[in-house]
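Journal club prep, shared notes

We agreed each person brings one worked example of a sequence with its structure written out as tokens. Mine is RpiR family transcriptional regulator. I'm keeping it raw so we can talk through how to read the token line rather than staring at a rendered picture. Sequence first:
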Amino acid sequence: MEPSLTKRIAQVREQLSDSGLRVVDFLALHPAEASVFSAQEIADQAGVSDATVIRTVKQLGYGGLGELRRAAAAMLNQVRDPEQTLAENLTQSDDSSQLLAKISLDAAHLARALPRTVPAEAFDAAIKTLATASDTLIVGYGSAEPAAMAMSLGLRRIGRSATATALTGYNFADALGQLGPRSALVIIAPLRHVREQDVAISEAARIGCPVVLITEMLASHFADRVATVLVTPSTDDLLPGPEIANLLLVDALILGVAAADPDRALDSWKTTNRLRADIVGGNLDVPLHRSTASRAAQPRVPPDSR
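Then the structure, token by token:
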């Protein structure tokens, strides 16, 4: 099976020049146009020469512009079937003794690739959006829900107002009703495009609320409708799903927002620690002395055997 355009971009991104990066960023965000544009039209949109476009196409491993166009067109209807993904992963999991090593190596690959797929300008723009927002609503469904919850908790712990939701259908209206012009909307949508995302983006546009999108495969679907797109590395042919990259990116964003106002972040944690101590009436953690650990490790003898 031929690697997708998204995967090819991730594989060669580190070797590309600045002008080559502008070309692949255009291809990733605008596959509909890339599927029909000439080299000169792509060059005009990316702000490079047509020779740079042709050179980048070859670096991506395509024989010519025609092959690139077909790959870009394939991106438009690209949907990853969870059942098929599991079936493919099982073919790599027949040796259980190597399974942990394999998934760890794949996770390390995702971590190394993340700085290459998220340009510094986009990352900084996302931090600015979150740091200046009066409140943030984070939307994540399915496997994206843990990252949405982690972002909401992390932002609240550094003194920011944040809410995560996985509500669907008409119940989702209750969450969207919280948005205002000074809010920020974060949508974590690695693979699946659902109607709730469209409605959320439209509502944010109506009230003037900036949107940050975190995605693996949907950048081209939403790029023209959101303020900032953060593209995570492709998980094609890897055992881990998008969750690892999502959580790493969320952690980095939270730290970036905290660094934008460190006094506010530290004061918030100080308040949290004080409240925790008040609630439990002292030290939050049970001290684990050697004697305690030793007793806990001793096997329990059943009462009827004494």
